[in-house]
Amino acid sequence: MGEFSGHLKLRAEVRENGKTVLAGQSFRAPFHVGKAYWDEEGAALRVQVVNPTAGILEGDKLETEIAVGSGAALLVTTPSASRVFHMRAGEAVASQKFSVEAGGWLEFLPEPLVPHDRSSFRQVTEIEVAEGGEIAFADLLMPGRIARGEMWSWSRLRLELSVRVGGELILRERLDQSGEEMKALAKLAGVGELKSEEGRGKGESGGGGVFNREWTRMDANAAAENGASAESGACCFGNVVIVSRKLEECGAWREWIEALHGARAWVGVSALRGGCGAWSLKIVAADGAELRRVLGEVREILAERLPRMRAALRRV
Amino acid sequence: MNTETSGVAWLAGMLQMGDTFYPTGAYAHSFGLEGMIELGAVRDRETLREFLLRSALPALRQAELPVVIHAWGALGGGRNAEVSGDGVLDKIKRINGISENEDGRRAVEWVDWRKVGELCVLASALKSAKEARLAAENIGRQRAELAAKLRGHPLAVEFVRWAEAEKWPYSPAAAAALEARVLGAPLEAALASVFYASIAGLMAAAMKLLRLGQNGSQTLLTEMMGKAPEIVAAAKKVPVGEIGWFNPWLDIAAARHERAAARLFIS
């Protein structure tokens, strides 16, 4: 089985005409960078990072460094999910570093990570935002190959995230869970336990929680269309960090995002430490389509204050 | 002071600081539990038990207790993360042969204040929900300031001075380490105290929020206390770089709770 020690390095800078260019780029398999496009609507340079291999394999060591200079605006996406394949004994490690200088903007919105059965993956993400810089960073996670019914069966998943603004640590998150442990947490939240009509109102202990209290026939049909069923026990995660002085004050945007919370997605927004306009947005959705829908609405809402988010997430 | 009487002194002090009568304000917080109940995840004794096993204990193992351990080490000059039967003052006196009056001042000289500050910031950065973070900081502040005010110990006074000067966020875990150092209590006592206070605090909140009787809560509390040795042993192996644990559902519940129209607890 081939092992990669791949890297991706991008540096975005602004030119005199106000447009952003990639002043530096270097990549090695399994990374490949597609042609960059200037998005007029969002006034940002859109770059798509492709993994032309099947996915992430045992022993892979992946390094990503994306830097955005003052005045530059960059949107980085991926065209498809990152699959982490079955591993016999070892693990794969990904190191991601993002830096944004004052006046710079970076939106990083890749497709979800899909950890397969018996995979072991560690992702270490470090974000450094200079005072006056802006970032919208998203990390999406699927429970596995939902359509195949393979969920929560990875061996170990470590997702470590540190965010510094102006040199000050404002967020440290560390998810370190086996698939079984995550499944137990999901079950606690009510995932995968469809509450029967008979059980309602009789004080039965099972079946409350996120996707069941208000689960409707329509929800079940929608889930089935997406390859999952109400009983499948699936849920998908979105972990978003946004830093912008334009979001210092609570406003209608927060209420609108909170209103996305409902029967098929939990949504929570809260201000991070430091008083620097940094926010944590967390989403747990019933399936990938719902996660994508909520994220799309979040981008629309935030684009009122952060117009760079009007840049299209065009997939090739 | 002989060994026996000094043991009684720190134990009495820890009982005082761990008592609900001690004005830390912790009674006003459910530490995310009310949010989990509001969203229907925790509904009864069985789901509360699952919450404790799947969320509260791992968070203690991977976040709260390791901060206590590393803060304890930093407050003793970084000399130990090992469990010792002696407090730092006993060590200093033994090594330097200094008098009882001087020991507090000498203790301050041993402290790795830079690391203490980093741990306070880290403890704050671990909490993404604002209200949960502010709740913890308020409790940590109250504990540290009380240690300085009631004990007048130079270590506690200096801790508060540093925190104010450097604008450290106060941390209950760091404050627990400080209290133990001030009292001359062993690390294990501090860890057991934090473990008990965390679980008992959740249980006390649960009794107000759920249909949960005295016996039902005490049997659950007893079961969780039985897990303390393995959780503490695991926490001792967590390096600073691996501190942190999160439950996405709990974070969402905590974020939504801070904007709830009606609620019993602050967090």
TrEMBL record, chain A:
GO terms for cellular component: cytoplasm. Keywords: Chaperone, Cytoplasm, Nickel insertion. One of its GO terms (molecular function) is nickel cation binding. PANTHER family: UREASE ACCESSORY PROTEIN D. Belongs to the UreD family. UreD, UreF and UreG form a complex that acts as a GTP-hydrolysis-dependent molecular chaperone, activating the urease apoprotein by helping to assemble the nickel containing metallocenter of UreC. The UreE protein probably delivers the nickel. This is Urease accessory protein UreD.
TrEMBL record, chain B:
Belongs to the UreF family. Keywords: Chaperone, Cytoplasm, Nickel insertion. UreD, UreF and UreG form a complex that acts as a GTP-hydrolysis-dependent molecular chaperone, activating the urease apoprotein by helping to assemble the nickel containing metallocenter of UreC. The UreE protein probably delivers the nickel. Its main location: cytoplasm. Gene3D superfamilies: Urease accessory protein UreF. Required for maturation of urease via the functional incorporation of the urease nickel metallocenter. It comes from the Bacteria. The gene is ureF. It is found in: Cytoplasm. GO terms for cellular component: cytoplasm. One of its GO terms (molecular function) is nickel cation binding. This is Urease accessory protein UreF. InterPro entries: UreF (IPR002639), UreF_sf (IPR038277). The keyword Cytoplasm applies.
